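JOB MANIFEST
job_type = single_chain_structure
chain_count = 1
residues = 306
[input]
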Amino acid sequence: MIKDIPTSSEFDSAAKAQFDFAWDIVISFLLTLEEAGCHTEIDKEDEAAFWESARQRILTSLIIAQQGVELAIKGKLVSISPYLLIAGNPSDWPKDTDGTGVSFSDFRAIDAQDLVKVHNTAAASSLDDGFVRLFEKIRKLRNKAMHTVDRELNISAQEVVAILLEVHNYLYPSDNWVSTRRNFLNESPATHVFFDTDHVEGLVAREFLTVFNFLTPSQASRFFKIDKKQRLYSCPECKYESDKYAMIDPRYAVLQPNEPDSEHLYCFVCDSLHAVTRDDCKSGECPGNVISIEYGYCCTCGEDQG
């Protein structure tokens, strides 16, 4: 008897935890460099030294991301049949020596290089060709990082972020990565001893402002459904939350619909519509006319209209 058979949801939870861990690593470097730049001008040599010091940790984040992708694909296989994950000849399977059964985890699992083939053979629909190419690219990079020391092997924090957004978007299209990240921060180990999550919304706003700023327009559209070519406004709710801890300008909200008299801003971080009035800003130097009803901010310059 085979016991302790895992479920698809357990694999999904483990996969997302790996994605979050990888994200945690790379976003910390991006925020650190950004914060340092707010206090002093960083020359190119110092920035290059910063990234060289972070290189191995960024490679580690890629390894963790790849593990998450493998777990996610295994979750898809388990939803068909968990026995698709078992590899090897039956003669090599573990034996039930005491009559209590053999744990599923004692069996050798199929190799990562076979996951796509097994999935595409067993599943009703195959994995997308673009995703398969990305999976193979990450897997090969991961193998190099795991099994050798190659000073030419390099990947940027921004590239890892884009990879994480790409694979999450494909593997969990109905899930919002911003919400997933927010949930992990709200349930982080520290919250269970300090009982404090007041900072989470501000931190989420800061992280995704940093990410949004370096994404290409096509990436922003694909991952967050935002047209970066539209006029961007500060999200009043994200501004309120981030002002508690860090003075940032969360300028990633857009009018929805994109019309001259539109009375709502959409923010992908909040995943919400925010009501606005189309009144002229009271600041004489600001040409804006999008004012938050709830918070009383001008969403163009951030000035309080009270």
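[summary]
DSSP finds ten helices and seven strands in the chain.
The two ends are 71 Å apart (CA to CA).
exit_status = 0
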